[in-house]
């Protein structure tokens, strides 16, 4: 008599309920539900027909086991989901890295452009300072301080001119023949013009001193 075959390792049956002996006659008994063995669901096709000795050698070699575990078509569903998430994260990282590289290139270009503009601005600033210095030097004689100094010198010079004319006239009376009427008239005219010029210059200086010259103060 042959012994009864044992159930396959990939399935198991529920044990009988504790009240199995107390069921009334004719009661319907639910068929046991087989629980699939998860070990058979992810075993690669290439290993299903291998003998136990080869399987033992494969299991003892981590490199081969890792290669078979991650081989195409033999990945466990949990690993496949992890790989998909990792692949999506890697693609996102690649996209972000590309965007960062593009931004870095644009930043380098903008920095080079800005540096060139800054150097050009510094050159223009130096040129403007040189032109401003030349302009100030050219306009220095027409500045208020220079004009006031020149006016003071003109007042003194014109006063000296009038004084010299007076002294020359007085010294000439005691020398030689007396001056003719025409010479006297000509001297009086020139003296009056010189005196008028001295008066006008003195009057301008006084107006300036009193702050009555528009545009300078």
Automatic annotation (TrEMBL):
One of its GO terms (cellular component) is ESCRT I complex. Residues 1-29 are annotated as: Disordered. One of its GO terms (biological process) is protein targeting to membrane. The keyword Protein biosynthesis does not apply. Residues 86-113 form a coiled coil. Gene3D superfamilies: Helix hairpin bin. Residues 20-29 have a biased composition (Low complexity). InterPro entries: ESCRT_assembly_dom (IPR037202), Helix_hairpin_bin_sf (IPR029012), Mod_r (IPR009851). Keywords: Coiled coil, Endosome, Protein transport, Transport. Residues 125-217 form the VPS37 C-terminal domain. Its main location: other. Residues 1-19 have a biased composition (Pro residues). It is found in: Endosome. Belongs to the VPS37 family. This is VPS37 C-terminal domain-containing protein.
């Amino acid at each position: 008599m042959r012994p009864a075959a044992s159930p396959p390792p990939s399935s198991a049956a529920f044990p009988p309920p504790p009240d199995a002996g107390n069921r009334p006659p004719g009661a319907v008994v639910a068929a046991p539900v087989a629980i699939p063995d998860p070990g058979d669901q992810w075993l690669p096709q290439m290993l299903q027909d291998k003998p136990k000795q080869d399987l033992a050698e494969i299991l003892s070699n981590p490199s081969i086991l890792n290669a078979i575990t991650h081989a195409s078509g033999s990945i466990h569903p949990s690993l496949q989901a992890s790989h998909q998430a990792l692949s999506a994260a890697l693609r996102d990282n690649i996209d972000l890295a590309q965007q960062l590289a593009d931004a870095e290139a644009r930043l380098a270009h903008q920095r080079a452009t800005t540096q060139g503009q800054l150097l050009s601005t510094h050159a223009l600033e130096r040129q403007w300072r040189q032109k401003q210095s030349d302009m100030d030097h050219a306009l220095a004689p027409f500045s208020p301080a220079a004009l006031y100094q020149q006016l003071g010198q003109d007042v003194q010079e014109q006063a000296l001119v009038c004084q010299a004319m007076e002294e020359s006239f007085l010294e000439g009376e005691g020398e030689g023949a007396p001056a003719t009427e025409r010479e006297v008239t000509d001297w009086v005219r020139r003296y009056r013009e010189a005196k008028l010029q001295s008066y006008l210059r003195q009057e301008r200086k006084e107006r300036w001193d009193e702050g009555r010259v528009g545009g300078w103060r």
